[in-house]
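Lay summary. Proteins are chains of building blocks that fold into shapes, and those shapes determine what they do. In this project we predict the shape from the chain. Here is one chain we studied, written as its sequence of building blocks.
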Amino acid sequence: MKGRLDYMKSENGLRPRGLRSGRPRFWALALVCLVSSLALLATAIPAVAVPPVSSVSDKIMCLCGCNSVLSVCPHPDCSWGIPAKEDIKQQLEAGTAPDAIIAQYVSKYGEQVLAAPTKRGFNMVVWVLPFAMLLIGAVAIFLLARTWAVRRSATEESALVVPVPVEDHPDEMVRRMEDELKRFD
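And here is the predicted shape, written in a compact code that computers can read:
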């Protein structure tokens, strides 16, 4: 026990050596790390993130007649697309939500301006019908294949079971067959 007590005693006999000496350095280092990480975090995140124009223009059709989504209109000087993109950009910078801008365009130009139909009312048919037709087609193919397989197996079984009556053959044929069978043995 004496060795353990000697280890724990410091030179003045009150505290173990080195216990108090590292704490100020630790707290200073922790404070520097905290301040620098907060400074990096503050510069990495802008104060107000403006959504890109494509967040709205990808959901709206260009009405110049090209039948393209507004963000990929092939006309370099489109009479409808360029002003629409500028309007969307200004509204986003002013703080208008993308959904509100889309709703504004739908109220102004109708649902034809949307790149994808809404998922309510009669438009739900557009979303459901392709999947329903795929399901109906798959069931029809399954039933048709099963019917063909049953018919084929029934035809094969009936072809194997049909007996050929010997009386229907002329006597000459029967005799020739018997002769050939005897020669074969």
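What the prediction tells us: The chain is about 60% helix and 0% strand.
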